[in-house]
Design brief:
Layout lengths: L7 H14 L2 H9 L4 H6 L4 H18 L2 H24 L4 E2 L7 H17 L2 H5 L1 H23 L2 H15 L5 H21 L2 E2 L3 E2 L3 E5 L10 H16 L1 H18 L1
Antiparallel strand pairs: 1-2, 3-4
Helix pairs in contact: 2-10, 4-6, 5-6, 5-11, 6-10, 8-9, 8-10
Length: 257
């Protein structure tokens, strides 16, 4: 495996970078317990404090982010909120505990978007991106197959296949989306286990030929939509920067031919 060919010192540094940039969301899984069914029924409904904590965490991450990442995070909050209402409230693709859209969800989308983006642009991560991608792809395949075999998660498995197909001709995006897939999967497992939200037994609670686990494995597919729309918004509102970027890219392409 390519990952084990990375020098030990650099591998340790990669682990530290991953935990520093993205590991905060693994800790957030534990916080989801306090918005779950057990805690809310037996102790107190604490969704509002969690929303406030999410807002403060978002502001902290926003302050530490690069200028471009900050703009993408703002777009992600707006688009994430629209997407949550569309997929959850309108389409019934999944349902939150209080049948609402908690504030921490679109804020979490944006924060996750920003932190994974920063990790994917880290110089050491870029240096060893192929090794990381191969390792993450293996984890994703095992995860999706286990869900398919043991939980009849056809819906999630098909979404996972689409993730790989969409990335087939987008090698520069693989590190970002493979990382996103894994973190989203962990958050989904924690959120559904605690009862913060739930997925129906079939896709969109409509398509009986697409059985789904709670949660389905490949839900990160929808982060492609978030990424595409954030990218489009960035181009629309920063056309001068985008034109300069294209000119630099064209110059480098000509230089390298």
């Amino acid at each position: 495996m390519l990952l084990f060919k990375i020098p030990k010192a650099e591998l340790n540094q990669l682990n530290k970078t991953f935990l520093r940039k993205v590991g905060i969301f693994i800790g957030f899984i534990l916080i989801l317990y306090f918005d779950g069914t057990s805690f809310s029924k037996n102790v107190i409904d604490s969704q509002i404090p969690i929303n406030i904590l999410a807002l403060l965490s978002f502001l902290w991450m926003y302050k530490r982010a690069y200028p471009r990442t900050r703009k993408l995070m703002i777009y992600a909050v707006f688009l994430g909120l629209l997407g949550e209402y569309f997929f959850s409230i309108y389409l019934g693709m999944y349902t939150y505990r209080l049948e609402n859209v908690p504030w921490y969800v679109p804020l979490g989308h944006a924060a996750l978007y920003g932190r994974v983006f920063i990790f994917s642009k880290d110089p050491l991560a870029r240096k060893h991106h192929k090794a990381i991608e191969h390792f993450f792809a293996l984890i994703i395949m095992i995860f999706a197959i286990v869900y398919l075999v043991f939980f009849d998660d056809i819906f999630g498995f098909l979404m996972t296949i689409l993730v790989f197909l969409l990335l087939y001709k987008r090698p520069k995006d693989r590190l970002y989306f493979y990382t996103m897939y894994i973190v989203v999967a962990l958050l989904e497992i924690g959120g559904t286990a605690f009862g913060c939200w739930k997925w129906p037994p079939i896709a969109f609670n409509v398509f009986e030929f697409l059985p789904s686990n709670n949660p389905p494995s490949g839900i990160s597919l929808f982060y492609f939509l978030l990424d595409i729309w954030c990218f489009l918004f960035y181009i629309i509102f920063h056309q001068k920067v985008w034109r300069r970027f294209r000119q630099i890219k064209q110059y480098n392409d000509i230089k390298n031919t």
